[in-house]
């Protein structure tokens, strides 16, 4: 907001945008009042020059009005004047001044308009404490316009009423030499018709709608005429600006057809998301775009037809229609018959190359799974030409094949997992096949889980391995040493244990998932039982204190007792549920077929513990070419039985063909 000095300086520097006016009146005072209404200024802001001095005449005869030229005054302020005004204003802000000026009282106004239909008077009432229009003011205006035929009775009535609406006070008398004139200008591009007016003089008439329309038509303007704008212009009678009476319609060119991709095709812009602690996991690069069968990949938005334009002279301006385009598609996708929608034919990875979109069932990683690739989650199969480095994740809806090794990482596949150079898990790796088998050169200090088989060429060392069917360790140096291995049907290796009596636990005859469920239930029962005994002891103590105190306890202890009683009841219910689940699970295990065997082709060393269903055999002496089986409720020893490797080799060949 400007200060007072700035405002006054601005007012002084700017040129007035209003024209000077020539007024006929009975006195200079009256002339200034009329000019103030016309210029929307206060009398104190006007400057004037008397052109002709008026006379009163004799008994009203020979009266001559004053002719006064009036224009806005240019006010000069010096520094002392400004300071004095600011001191008088005191604490009044610029905003207060603006609000006061906006609410300033307004005087009534009158205007006289001459048209072919007659002479029309419009009187608007004042606002607030503003002055009403004086009939003498209207009379003076009529006199200055040389309108002698006005009905003064109607004039007086309308001045008194101040309806704000045009009222006819006389008939039009043609005065061609005083009438308003106009000319029509059409722009070079024929998109606009501009009307220039000259205001009427004295009793000359204003142009009306018909005059303007006829003139436009005579100049070839037939379209885009804005009658509402013309009427508004005529109502205001402001001839200082030309009137844009007609405007053409510019052509609208049609938008080109384009492809709206519903999947991410630009993988150059990698974003990192922060967790709740503000840390960024740089392994989650999200470079893959996975899709499922039937998912919409892209939609063609058709081109738009152009809309022709039209000039004010009714000349048509042609418009260009949008260009068409086609969806380019590759394998693994289906294009609709009308060519407007592309969907996925298979589950897999979206590949966008050379403007063509495809869905690949296999995702190939060139090199290692590392910071360059980030974690991988894919709806098809994944083939890694290198290794999977520490702390990275690979998940696949199909198979996972790693041509290198797997470090301390997490792998999960719905199909098979093939690791050609083995697993160096350092006790934290987890490799799981939820629907297939796991194949590896070796497994060392890792957690391995397979729905079907775990097949290892060299050895399984100090690891936890669960297989729904078999764990086979068969190569020239194949051995199982340390850890816990569980299989639903069979564990078979050349060597089991070591000559240093390393503890090695082998469990067969029950699905490891069921065993894990049984183990979890037992651990849960143990934990709840311990908590239950603690709560039970606290309840007993508080109950004894209450009995000793005559059946009353302090409020806080009473609340604690009630809370503990509630916990005790819930724990009793939970223990009953756990016992029931354990009974049902053990009954199910008892109904299972008596199968399960452990085979050692060369040697089973002391330190090996063998469990077949619920029976245990502790190997205390070395056994060679041996098989352990459950017969008649006891673990029996017999001659070694080689595994069926043909099925395994055929399965690996099938997996490779699918890949």
Explained architecture:
By secondary structure, the chain is of the alpha/beta class. The chain folds into five domains: 4-104, no CATH class; 176-247, no CATH class; 259-309 and 318-360, OB fold (Dihydrolipoamide Acetyltransferase, E2P), CATH 2.40.50; 377-516 and 594-650, no CATH class; 517-591. Helices cover 26% and strands 32% of the residues. It is built from eleven helices and 37 strands. The chain has a 19-stranded mixed beta sheet that branches. It has a four-stranded antiparallel beta sheet with strand order 10-12-16-15, with no helix packed on it. β34 (608-612) and β35 form a beta hairpin. α9 (512-548) runs antiparallel to α10. The radius of gyration is 51 Å and the shape is elongated. Mean pLDDT is 83; it is low at 1-5, 7-18, 75-82, 88-99 and 654-659.
């Amino acid at each position: 907001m400007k200060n007072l000095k700035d405002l006054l300086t601005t007012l002084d520097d700017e040129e007035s945008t209003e024209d000077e006016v020539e007024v006929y009146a009975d006195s200079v005072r009256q002339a200034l009042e009329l000019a103030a209404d016309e210029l929307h200024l206060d009398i104190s802001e006007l400057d004037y020059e008397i052109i002709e001095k008026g006379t009163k005449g004799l008994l009203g005869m020979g009266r001559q009005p004053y002719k006064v030229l009036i224009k806005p005054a240019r006010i000069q302020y010096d520094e002392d004047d400004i300071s004095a005004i600011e001191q008088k204003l005191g604490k009044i802000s610029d905003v207060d001044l603006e609000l006061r000026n906006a609410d300033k009282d307004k005087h009534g106004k009158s205007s006289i308009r001459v048209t072919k239909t007659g002479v029309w008077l419009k009187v608007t009432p004042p606002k607030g404490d503003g002055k009403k229009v004086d009939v003498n003011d209207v009379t003076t205006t009529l006199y200055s316009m040389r309108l002698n035929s006005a009905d003064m009775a109607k004039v007086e009535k309308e001045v008194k009423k101040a309806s704000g609406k045009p009222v006819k006070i006389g008939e039009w008398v043609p005065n061609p030499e005083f009438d308003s004139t106009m000319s029509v200008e059409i722009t070079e591009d024929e998109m606009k018709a501009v009307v220039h007016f000259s205001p009427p003089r004295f009793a000359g008439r204003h142009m009306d709608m018909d005059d303007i329309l006829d003139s436009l038509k005579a100049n070839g303007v037939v379209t885009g005429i804005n009658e509402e704008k013309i009427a508004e212009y005529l109502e205001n009678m402001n001839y200082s600006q030309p009137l844009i009476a007609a405007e053409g319609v510019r052509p609208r060119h049609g938008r080109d057809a384009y492809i709206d991709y519903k999947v991410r095709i630009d993988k150059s812009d990698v974003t990192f998301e922060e967790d709740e602690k503000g840390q960024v996991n740089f392994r989650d690069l999200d470079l893959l775009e996975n899709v499922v069968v039937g998912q919409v990949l892209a939609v063609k938005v058709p081109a738009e037809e152009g809309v022709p334009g039209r000039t004010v002279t009714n000349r048509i301006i042609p418009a260009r229609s949008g260009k068409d385009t086609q969806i380019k598609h590759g394998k693994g996708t289906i294009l609709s018959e009308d060519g407007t929608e592309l969907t996925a034919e298979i589950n897999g990875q979206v590949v966008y190359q050379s403007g063509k979109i495809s869905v690949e069932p296999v995702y190939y990683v060139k090199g290692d799974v590392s910071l360059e690739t980030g974690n991988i989650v894919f709806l098809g199969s994944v083939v890694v030409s290198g290794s999977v480095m520490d702390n990275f994740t690979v998940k696949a809806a199909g198979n996972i094949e790693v041509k290198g090794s797997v470090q301390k990482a997490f792998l999960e596949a719905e199909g098979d997992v093939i690791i050609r150079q083995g697993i160096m898990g350092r006790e934290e790796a987890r490799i799981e096949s939820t629907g297939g088998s796991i194949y590896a050169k070796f497994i060392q200090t890792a957690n391995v889980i397979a729905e079907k088989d775990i097949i290892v060429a060299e050895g399984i060392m100090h690891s936890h391995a669960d297989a729904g069917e078999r764990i086979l360790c068969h190569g020239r140096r194949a051995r199982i040493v340390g850890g816990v291995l569980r299989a639903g049907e069979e564990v078979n290796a050349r060597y089991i244990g070591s000559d240093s009596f390393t503890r090695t636990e082998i469990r067969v005859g029950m699905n490891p998932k069921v065993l894990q469920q049984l183990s979890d239930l037992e651990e849960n029962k143990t934990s709840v039982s311990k908590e239950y005994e603690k709560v039970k002891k606290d309840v007993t103590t508080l109950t004894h204190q209450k009995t000793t105190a005559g059946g009353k306890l302090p409020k806080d202890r009473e609340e604690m007792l009630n809370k503990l009683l509630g916990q005790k009841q819930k724990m009793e219910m939970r223990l009953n549920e756990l016992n029931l689940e354990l009974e049902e699970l053990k009954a199910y295990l008892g109904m299972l077929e008596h199968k399960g065997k452990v085979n050692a082709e060369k040697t089973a060393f002391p330190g090996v513990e063998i469990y077949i269903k619920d029976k245990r055999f502790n190997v205390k002496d070395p056994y060679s070419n041996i098989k352990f089986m459950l017969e008649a409720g006891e673990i029996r020893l017999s001659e070694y039985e080689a595994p069926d490797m043909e099925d395994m080799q055929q399965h690996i060949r099938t997996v490779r063909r699918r890949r």
